[in-house]
Amino acid sequence: MLNTNVLVLNRLWQAVNICTVRRAFCLLYEGHAQVVTETGGSFNTFAFEDWKDFSINAPEEESVDTVSFKIKIPRVILLLFYERLPRREVKFTRKNIYERDGNRCQYCGKKFDSKNLNLDHVVPLARGGKTTWDNIVCSCLPCNTRKGGRSLNESGMKLIRKPRKPIWQTFVLIRFRSHMHESWKHFLDVAYWNVELGEEVK
Fold first, then answer.
1. What is d(CA 160, CA 176) in angstroms, rounded to the nearest whole number?
2. Is there a contact between 107 and 123 (Cβ–Cβ < 8 Å)?
């Protein structure tokens, strides 16, 4: 239970991260954050002591016991002293390429476990292709073997989607959604529809 996910909002109520329940309790106890709850369309915040009092009647499956009291698991917390958005750059890593492509082969469209996927240069290195966001895609082993070191035209293959560098906020929100608790929905929906789109998606 202490390792489950909590949505973290900055001081401007923007979704910026996910942390564990354990970390959320530390931030609450130290006075760096408050719990956010929603009732009937309005939002309430609770400091640690208020949250402890609010937790008295919480169901057992939604709370944890300490030596002297029971406390409800928070699902959304608001940072009191942090108003920035994290660095808006998605690192160019194997994991993030898999995340961008949804673990789908970009040639046949089938979804695979990460261990059954390769990364393929759309324009082969031998033909001047570069190792960049817009030239690397997920590829299953059969498609990777079929394409080999040839171009798309030479192999008679097509991409299901043109590869692009992800926009940081949209990319992170998609990742958040894969761990989403019902109480996060409002914050992620607002963030998703208000993100400023980059030139590459126009």
1. 24
2. no
Model pLDDT for residues 113-139, shown as the tens digit of each residue: 989 999 999 999 999 999 999 999 999
Q: What is the enclosing helix (H) or strand (E) of 128?
A: none
What's the pTM value of the predicted model, to 2 decimals? Answer: 0.54
Nearest 5 degrees, angle CA 192-CA 184-CA 81? Answer: 85
Host H or E run for residue 142? helix 141-147
94-155 to CATH, choices 1.10.30.50, 3.40.1440.10, 3.90.950.20, 3.40.30.10: 1.10.30.50
- 180 vs 187: CA distance, rounded Å: 11
Q: Residue ranges of the domains in the chain?
A: 5-86+169-201, 94-155
| Tokens describing residue 28 | 């609450």
